[in-house]
User: Fold these one by one.
Assistant:
Number 1:
Amino acid sequence: MGSISLPFSPMKRKIHPRVHVIGSCNGLVCLHREPYSLTVWNPTTGSYKAFSYYRHIVRNSYPLEKTWNCLKPLRITLLSGFGYDESKDDYLVIVAWKDKREENHFDFYSLRSSSWKSFDVALPNNTTRRRDPGLFFNGALHWLPEDINDDQILVFDITKKRFSVISKPEKEVISYHAKLIVLGGCLALYFTVKSSIHGKIWIMKEYKVHTSWTLYKNPKGLFQPLCVSSDGNLVGLSGNSSLMKARANVERELSYASRVHVGYHTYDDHKSIMYTQSFMPLPSDSEEKKKKKRELGQLEEDHNEVKQGKRRRSTEDFTATTFESSPIFK
């Protein structure tokens, strides 16, 4: 097992602020650092962009939670998430929140423009707070409801700017640890059955087709699936210290094989996500490089014009003052 340094300066004080994972998309990871800082980071290249949401949101917001005991990031928001807008080739941090007059706002931070903007779309009626940041999949963010009895997964298509819902596979009351993930290129939901040590993993084999939800029984309720390996095994965290492989039998019940110890943790102090390495620069980085390239190109054009002017004057039969180029052209 390896480790990687987070893109934060060392803290002088003894109490370190909590860092939460908002999401991952195309090799970029979005992190929330208490109290009001967001960072979009490429762990492969080390490049990152940090920005605050205090001025835009916090000082204008309605306090949805009045205590600081909650471990969830962006606790003052209704919805949050990180995703990619293919139509604009831009990465967005998305936040829905209430102002002090309890009016809804649906905003996003654009990495390309390095600014906060508002969506020209209203939140669905009676939108309630979703406890976790949205899962980005198939061009959209997906949120589980805060109320475990609610059977609707809220979906926002980032490119089409459109809300929709997906019904959960069953109306069975599920535990607090229910999570949305992507398994084998499919939307999936896993949870521990209430008052039981057993878990269930539902995989939507065909996106937005309710009948395609397929159940896999999980005898180890605390097994947290992460991905499907190239050999067809399910890889995930088991209990509080091990990385395990599991395989489903013909009855779609999981059996477990190899185990690797990865260190002690609890469900409240960690979050695991899948991340794909990428050497792509952040949009703001690429824009800055393009800007510098344009500036250099303009300097080169100006330099060529100066040289052409010199040649014209040297061929004409008149006395002129010699033009000396500025050191910037040398």
Note: Helices lie at 283-315.
Number 2:
Amino acid sequence: MTDKRSDERRKLASLADALLDDLFATSDEDILKEVTEAGGDPSAISDQMRARFEETLLQARKERMKAARAGRRATQGVAESTNVVDISIARQALRHAFQQDGLSMAARNETESDLTDEEVLRKYDDLIRLGVIDPENGGDP
């Protein structure tokens, strides 16, 4: 059943492609002639199409604005929750946590002084999330 549906969809897509190719190959004069012969008003149809296009464009812009606002709100929430930490305080808190709680970085066989500032801040944040370090208490547990 699925193969039959997908085959029918392929045929419809091919038909739509052929119709569009035929339409694009037709000259403006031929299209205007066909519309007039069918009793249509080319000017009225043009106005309707322009209005539809502008409405679609307006709707697309609204959706873009909506997405941009959602993105801004998402980044504002992150920015507000991010605290700036003095690297010396972070290093001191790590050193204290490792000495106090018997924590170690055995897998890397390093101390806090061997870490880059970025690594210190990352580990500091990790230990805050784990509840080992309390940032409100000056980095003490």
Note: The chain has five helices and no strands.
